[in-house]
Amino acid sequence: MNLEQMIKRFKIYTDRFNALQQALNLFHWDIAIGAPKGGTNSHAKYVGILSAEDFSMRVSDEMKNFLETLEPHWDSLDEITKAMLRICRRDYDAFNKIPVEEMQKYSELVSKAEPVWEISKNNNDFASFAPILDQLLQYQNRFVEYRGYEKHRYNTLLDDYEPGMTVDKLDIFFEKLKSVIVPLLKKITEKDDGKTSGVFLNRRVSIAKQRLISELLMRKIGFDMDRGMLRESAHPFTDDFGKNDVRITTHYHENAFLSSFYSVMHECGHAIYEQNTMDTIADTILDKGVSMGIHESQSRFYENIIGRSEAFWESIYYELIIILGDDFKDVSARDFFLASNIVKPSLIRIEADELTYCLHIMVRYEIEKELFSNSFNVNELPGVWNAKMKEYLGIEPQTYSEGILQDIHWSGGSFGYFPSYALGNAYAAQILHTMKKDIAIDDCIRSSDFMSIQKWLTEKIHKYGSLKTPAEIIRGISGEELNAEYFTIYLQDKFSALYDL
So what's the pLDDT on residue 195? Predict the structure, then answer.
């Protein structure tokens, strides 16, 4: 068999497990948006079987043969084949020591865990979730042992979401953020005269109206409704099935309409990334974002840099007021802008202000480090969580639902994911710094010219999918590696101006 024939076989092989992954995504989507709870065990069985098939193909002898046969011809390969080999080699080396049977059982457990988490959260009942969380942690710890690690067990999991990320790097990163955020928060707290209370944000907005607002936001910022959809779930998320089918969810609260407003902006950032990969990688294993840090940079860019700017509120104000009606006619675009940027420590991460948000991530990062450093009794977690919230944000949850149970991630086994949100903030600020050299971003936002912004992001980031590495993406944009300095300067400049510091 010649080289060209082997490459063709390799790509057909990757198409097969990519199809299995899309089937698993469909299961996840269906379960999350309202599949019958009575079907949980059956769904888990099917998910386990499909996951085992997908996993076994990625670590099979056949995959090993493809890698060993094609990699010696690296210099003769096109960039798409090279990128596919890079991803397959990474997966093979990371997971080939994990028994397929254990991965199947783990996948079944994950499928059962999310519905348990949702019920536990709704009932404020951590005791019901603790046993399945303990099982998930046992599996993840065992998998880390199979896979091996350098210096810190948690490094193995961090690398899954942001290649090359380690505890040592994150400790420095978070210390840098903390050194800026904490003093800035103290200054704001001391300076705040309470003139901008944002109390009008608690006015009732019907779910029907909020759905119209969601449609307005999606249409306005460039989410392609012909290749995507919006539904409702317990926790907002994005699922993609290739660039031509990208689905998002939100959750509505009648007395807090900005909750869904910003969750839609956030998920649209993820979705627009996925919808704009280049056609030459469509429906392949490269047809997805390259890392969760880069992915979160896009969601946080749309949610915060665009969505919390004064230019955006001026752009959307009149269309929004038509939907909101007389109850909000006394509220100006400037009022909305100031209220959307109020800095106040709060309990819920996804509703946190832009400044204190990273403190929420630090809480989760510190807990996950401990979970994979020591033997940890999960029943101690609520107390540890509350103590760290008190330490970092100065407030303490009174219920499990607003504390340890608020996030969905652990029920999905996503240990190591949370730092991606903070990394995404830093990437976004670095991206903004370069974008400003090329386009007048505020003018584009104010005039609703979101296509100019999207085209820039597509050219620099979106079109590549997983063709390039995260380091190659950010170097290609800014000429340097990830640099948290841009984010700290962004925060200082923005909130010093808002609070006249």
Answer: 63
CATH label, 195-339+416-498, candidates 3.40.50.720, 2.60.40.790, 1.10.1370.30, 3.40.50.10490: 1.10.1370.30
Phi then psi dihedrals of residue 403, to 5 deg: -120, -110
Comparing C-alpha atoms, which of 116, 439, 93, 462 is closest to residue 287?
462
Task: Tokens for 219, please give them.
Answer: 């249409």
Distance CA 501, CA 499 (A): 6
Q: Are 111 and 27 in contact (CB under 8 A)?
A: yes
Amino acid at 367: I
**Contact status, residue 257 vs residue 201, Cβ threshold 8 Å:** yes
Work out the number of other CB atoms within 10 angstroms of the CB of residue 96: 16
pLDDT tens profile 222-280: 999 999 999 999 889 999 999 999 999 999 999 999 999 999 999 999 999 999 999 99
- Rounded to the nearest angstrom, the gap between the alpha carbon of residue 267 and the centroid of all alpha carbons in its chain is 8
Tokens standing for 161? 């979401």
Give the span between the Cα atoms of 17 and 30, in whole angstroms.
20
Q: What tokens were used for 167? A: 């505890």
104-107: which pairs have CB atoms within 8 A and are 24 or more residues apart?
104/48, 104/49, 104/51, 104/52, 104/55, 105/48, 105/139, 106/136, 106/139, 106/143, 106/413, 107/47, 107/48, 107/51, 107/52, 107/55
pLDDT digit string (tens) for 9-18?
A: 999 999 999 9
Q: In degrees rounded to 5, what are phi and psi of residue 125? A: -130, 85
What residues pair up with 228 in beta bridges, in sequence order?
Answer: 246
The pLDDT tens digits of the residues spanning 62-91 come to 999 999 999 999 999 999 999 999 999 999
**Residue 299 exposure: Cα atoms within 13 Å on the Cβ side:** 25
H or E stretch at 228: strand 228-232
**Do 363 and 178 meet the contact criterion of CB atoms below 8 Å apart?**
no
Helix, coil or strand: residue 367: helix
Alpha-carbon gap, residue 456 to 462, rounded angstroms? 9
Task: Rounding to the nearest 10 degrees, give the CA dihedral for residues 479, 480, 485, 486.
Answer: 30
Q: Say what the pLDDT of residue 121 is.
A: 97
Q: Is 118 a catalytic residue?
A: no
DSSP string, 416-454: T-THHHHHHHHHHHHHHHHHHHHS-HHHHHHTT-HHHHH
Q: Give per-residue pLDDT as tens, 352-380.
A: 999 999 999 999 999 999 999 876 789 99
The catalytic position among 108, 267, 303, 314 is 267
How many C-beta atoms surround the C-beta of residue 22 within 10 A? 17
